[in-house]
Design brief:
The structure is a single chain. With 273 residues, this protein is α/β, with parallel strands linked by helices. It has one domain (5-272): Rossmann fold (3-Layer(aba) Sandwich), CATH 3.40.50.1820. It is 44% helix and 14% strand. Strands 1-3-2-4-5-6-7 form a seven-stranded mixed β-sheet, sandwiched between helices. Strand 6, helix 10 (219-229) and strand 7 form a beta-alpha-beta unit. The longest helix has 24 residues, at 249-272.
Length: 273
């Protein structure tokens, strides 16, 4: 099955390792190409993002609601195999859970970044939090999952994913990426396919990032994920769930760049010494 890959390359010899970004629900690889892929290419890294089957320009749209979480993990495995060397994996939201499920296979990778990720316990904790704290938004999200983009609006996207200061033009541009999501995968993340990964099985450096104003994955859940993996954690103020598209996206990108240079490259150099 063809998976669409978006890649940006530096003008000089790339630094190691390459970076592979994975999108979340209702979107595709293009969300990373707005800012993140060009940013990391300018800073010397190969930066890649791919669309899961049934998303973006990848094949499989006609079977979208039959795809399981295991199918998305197989897509990630296929994408990793195309990298010139073991990459750093950056997964956002649902993409973070796909990355965690992939880690159950004990792969050789350079690093892991979970960005506003579905926590190890699955969607149930975040759904309960959202239902209690933001009941109207939770109802809208459920209807969007069931009915698809025809139910959505730019105003709903603003309240679900972005900070209040996001421009209307940015919302309209993001809405062009929005699509339906596999309902079966949502059920898998609710508990049909629970995470069996143990923290001591993660062999690569791991970073957990979250957003202060995220109505999907609260800062408390982000910190729980970091405690589970005994990992470094950073919560970004004045930011909502769509961290890579927010007006202050550069804060996240700079932090991720510094972590990659400090932790991942440092570990690689130590291993070669």
């Amino acid at each position: 099955m063809h998976l669409d890959m978006v890649s940006r390359y530096p003008e000089t010899t790339p630094k190691s390792p390459p970076l592979l970004f994975l999108h979340g629900s209702f979107s595709d690889a293009r969300i990373w190409d707005e800012y993140f892929l060009p940013f990391f290419a300018r800073n010397g890294y190969e930066a890649h993002a791919f669309s899961l089957r049934g998303h973006g320009q990848s094949e499989g749209h006609q079977y979208l609601h039959t795809w399981r979480l295991a199918d998305y993990v197989a897509d990630l495995e296929k994408a990793v195999a195309t990298m010139p060397q073991p990459p750093v994996l950056i997964g956002h939201s649902m993409g973070g859970m796909v990355v965690q499920k992939y880690l159950e296979t004990l792969p050789t990778i350079a690093g892991v970044v979970l960005m506003a990720s579905v926590p190890p316990q699955g969607l149930l904790p975040s759904n309960l939090h959202m239902a209690m704290r933001h009941p109207f938004l939770f109802q809208q999200m459920v209807l969007f999952l069931l009915l698809g983009p025809s139910y959505g609006s730019t105003d709903m996207m603003r309240r679900l994913l972005f900070s209040p200061d996001v421009s209307t033009a940015k919302l309209h541009a993001f809405f062009d990426y929005v699509q339906a999501e596999s309902q079966v995968v949502s059920l898998d993340m609710m508990g049909l396919n629970p995470l069996r990964l143990k923290p001591d099985q993660v062999r690569a450096p791991l970073l957990v990032l979250g957003a202060q104003n995220d109505v999907f994955v609260s800062p408390a859940l982000v910190r729980e994920t970091a405690r589970f993996y005994r990992a470094e954690c950073e919560i970004f103020p004045n930011m909502a769930h769509a961290m890579m598209l927010e007006s202050n996206w550069r804060d996240v990108a700079d932090y991720l760049l510094a972590w990659t240079e400090r932790v991942v490259e440092g570990q690689s150099q130590a291993a070669m010494a």
